[in-house]
Design goal:
- This protein is α+β, with helices and mostly antiparallel strands.
- It is built from 9 helices and 12 strands.
- The chain folds into 2 domains: 102 residues, Phosphorylase Kinase, domain 1 (2-Layer Sandwich), CATH 3.30.200.20; 211 residues, Alpha-Beta Complex (Aminoglycoside 3'-phosphotransferase, Chain: A, domain 2), CATH 3.90.1200.
- The strands form 4 sheets. Strands 1-2-3-5-4 form a 5-stranded antiparallel beta sheet.
């Protein structure tokens, strides 16, 4: 989707960047437009390699608070995920504060598979089960602090970090007024009232938090399998349970979901009543992101309207459930 945060580079600028970073020029380039924030190109290099370039928005462009240094988190996540045995694209070069273009970029080895978004593989059930196993492996990576260290939004406990993340996001509405189902103060109070459920989480785990079909690449040359997970830029340190929110976006996590079965093949996971509350807290956070991020990005109205309406309706449902679990809260 087109976005104001996406930068546009000429063929000459792409060639110069590749020469600085990898020592070879660009024979051909294609911009990839599926993403929402960073500009992305597939480059065919003079030495025969195909690579993917991700370029962050210009540093002077204001974004949401948690989006500071997103590509730096993504670079770290690629290396950590690979070390945990999760298939990812190869990180060839991470450039931060590039002196010529300004801002950050990543150069990744191009994948030869296909995006799950738009593909209709025969083994859908088994692929979803495999995805569950890979996400469990991704979540085995642990850290030292909760939240977004690269953005300076952290907490000593998961509850503290989550409320800081929500607070930063709601604070962004002062710069980017957003139509939300409840006033900002009421939303903050509602989420805080439900936040004691987060105290069950005592170790920071690496959470991708953006595992929709477009970020899963498939190898369909034989028996369908997952080739790689991509786009780790929204990753944070927190509760592995949050990983299930994006693959079930605008829906619920069902006990018969093969995603859950695959996850449990690697590590136990019980959907207790408290876990269901935590899931709703993470859904609320994701849906708020989807609504508030339109402020800096300014999506085309015709394309964004459906997403906005569906997100708003889903957020209202989540708020209603959280209210039912928080007797002290009032709409």
């Amino acid at each position: 989707m087109d976005s104001r945060t996406k930068r546009h580079l000429s063929a000459a600028e792409l060639d110069a960047l590749a020469r600085r970073a990898l020592g070879t020029g660009v024979a051909a380039s294609t911009e990839l437009t599926d993403g929402y924030a960073n500009a992305v190109w597939r480059l065919s290099l003079d030495d025969g390699r195909d690579v993917v370039l991700k370029l962050a928005p210009p540093p002077e462009l204001e974004q949401l608070s948690y989006e500071r240094n997103l590509l730096r988190m993504e670079a770290a996540a690629y290396e950590l995920a690979a070390a945990a045995g999760v298939p990812v694209a190869e990180l060839l070069r991470a450039g931060f504060d590039d002196p010529v273009l300004g801002g950050d970029y990543l150069l990744l080895g191009a994948l030869d598979g296909v995006s799950w978004n738009g593909a209709s593989p025969d083994a859908e059930h088994e692929l979803r089960r495999e995805l569950g196993r890979l996400l469990a492996r991704f979540n085995t990576v642990t850290g030292e602090v909760f939240g977004y260290p690269h953005a300076g939004i952290t907490g000593a406990t998961w509850r503290e970090a989550y409320l800081a993340m929500v607070g930063a996001l709601l604070g962004d509405t002062e710069r980017y007024p957003t139509a939300l189902p409840l006033p900002v103060g009421e939303i903050a109070a509602l989420l805080a009232a439900a936040s004691p459920a987060l105290d069950e989480v005592t170790t920071p785990h690496l959470v991708h938090f953006d595992v929709w079909a477009g970020n899963v690449f498939l190898d369909l040359t034989g028996t369908p399998r997952i080739q790689a997970l991509i786009d780790h830029e929204r990753a944070f340190w927190g509760d592995p349970l949050a990983e299930f929110v994006t693959p079930t976006i605008f829906g619920e996590l069902r006990e018969d979901d093969p995603l859950l079965a695959g996850y449990r093949e690697v590590t136990p996971l019980e959907l207790t009543p408290a876990a269901r509350v935590r899931l709703d807290l993470y859904r609320a956070y994701l849906y708020l992101i989807l609504l508030i991020e339109n402020g800096p990005r300014q999506y085309p109205e015709a394309e964004y309207a459906r997403v906005r309406d569906l997100t708003t309706a889903s957020l209202i449902e989540v708020f209603d459930r959280l209210i039912s679990h928080s007797p002290g809260s009032r709409r």
